[in-house]
Design a protein that fits this description.
mainly alpha, 8 helices, 65% helix
Length: 135
């Protein structure tokens, strides 16, 4: 799958779970959201957009194929899929211990606490807070 095909996979997951219908998400806004997420992933060997789509697809499998959606509200399932897609945005390819030991700008920004998790969450909030991508 190339990058555009991976975007299509995510769109199909949202469609199959009927998130656009359930939450009134316009198709163009969903597409902009997925492309914004893709743009925030670096071309690393692991923590890249393909990894994000893999995690999103596995989340879909648990929800749809294995029936976990029956245990959650629609909103909880939606949040889970969105979090799966956004969970490693702009990953630098290092871990928290490295960030803290190297006294990186990210470590300083997040006071050496859950550095990468806080960074990914802040980027997710930016995407979700932007007018054209706030699904």
């Amino acid at each position: 799958f190339n990058s555009d095909e991976l975007v299509e996979v995510v769109l199909k997951i949202f469609d199959k779970l009927e998130f656009c219908n359930k939450f009134g998400i316009p198709n163009d806004k969903l597409l902009a959201f997925v492309k914004a997420a893709r743009a925030k992933y670096k071309p690393l060997s692991y923590h890249n957009f393909r990894h994000a789509v893999d995690v999103t697809h596995n989340t879909f499998l648990f929800l749809h194929t294995f029936g976990a959606a029956a245990l959650l509200s629609d909103l909880d399932a939606f949040i889970l899929v969105v979090a799966a897609l956004l969970h490693d945005l702009d990953h630098p390819g290092t871990n928290n211990a490295y960030q803290v030991a190297s006294k990186s700008a990210l470590a300083k920004r997040f006071n050496n606490k859950s550095v990468l998790e806080n960074y990914h969450a802040s980027l997710a909030a930016e995407i979700l807070g932007a007018e054209d991508t706030n699904i």
